[in-house]
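Preliminary data (for renewal application), beta-D-fucopyranose complex.
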Amino acid sequence: MNGFPDDFVWGAATSAYQIEGSPLAEGAGPSNWHRFAHTPGTTENGEHGDLACDHYRRWKDDVALMADLGLRAYRFSISWSRVLPSGRGAINQKGLDFYCRLVDELLRRGIHPCATLYHWDLPAALDDQGGWLNRDSAEWFADYARVVWRSLGDRVPMWATLNEPWVVMDAGYMHGVHAPGHRSVHEAARVAHNLLRAHATAVQAYRASCSQKIGLVVNLEPKEPATPRPEDLDACERSHQYMNQQFLDPIFRGSYPDRFPEIYGEAWPEISEADRRLLQTPIDFLGINYYKRGLMADVARSSTGRPEGDRMATMPPYAREVRDPARWHTELGWEVFPDGLTRILCWVKERYGDLPLYVTENGAAFYDPPAPIAGRIDDPMRIEYLRGHLIAARDAISAGVNLRGYFAWSLFDNYEWAAGYGKRFGLVHVDFATQARTPKASALCYRELIRTNGASLGATLP
Ligand code: FCB
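Predicted structure:
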């Protein structure tokens, strides 16, 4: 047991656009990320996912590598525009076959496939019709899901509808730093609601035809006030509702958080009773992506109380993140705060009830040696990050949280969205020029953790 249940799921995660490459191969249509990354000025050094980890061609060797690392589960995502190049209508069988082969190979090697239907890459053809702003997106999504499920629905034991809807709406539609690059509070509010409608519509469609588990993946982080000033406490509460409660309250409590009309102002849409009921469609598990803590302060305000400052400060929830210099930060500037994982897992249980939980992503970008040294890539900071967070996960289990598994982000160094290839999250190093894969010391450490079901957490590291 070692503090982890005997059937604890040890896995690693990736997503389609971040690793596959060949985005237009064999009849696939372009996604909004393909289009966004090819628009000048949107990503670090203009980097895009045209090659990425070339997983579309190297999938078989990659599954062999997963087996070598002892992974029990693999979380990946399906590219909607490979399966349906125009987002709806004609099926691209070759695109679907890619995922069928991947799933077969995973099952053959005894690795549980965990598939996410939407990890941020919307077919560009649907973006042209308004994307998530269009209320029809719920049906588009459910129709796409049905196509995938006809081939894979019961062969994959664990399905996630959406990955991190908060990031889709906040980065994609509020701040414009992700595809589709829009900057509008009005759009963000509507997109958030439509994402939840799409999620719930797909869950209902799944129940009608398949019988495995289906859930949602959200990113959560504990919010703490930067100072005890009432303004900062209030900014902290707004940020907490905005990030942590926005997508969970409607599912588990039947309504959006109480401060929303104020946070979004007149941009907040009228929610119909039918939508409210739809959003409460039960799910089988919740996936939580956990990376960091958010230390929050209020933004500067004019004499009339209006928020002032840069674009981030003048958009909901009118809070800014403060850096605690005493703490350790990753290469993306994210604060390392393992205790926050225990806290957020306990908070979910307390607020939303005792449903099965998975940590569906957790990991860190650190500066690693750019190439193996004597065949090794030593990444002691990532090992420490991993250990700290697994201890925090174990603490949550001891506190009674129904945590069923943990997926490290990421199996590979990959395309970190607008940050490009420079920010490496992998357990496995990828040389992007040669596509050589080298398991880092953290991967070897993780293999040992899996082998001992967590017993080696206390041991000296390799
Ligand atoms: C999460 C995303 C994932 C990856 C990590 C670092 O927000 O789900 O694709 O980019 O962050």
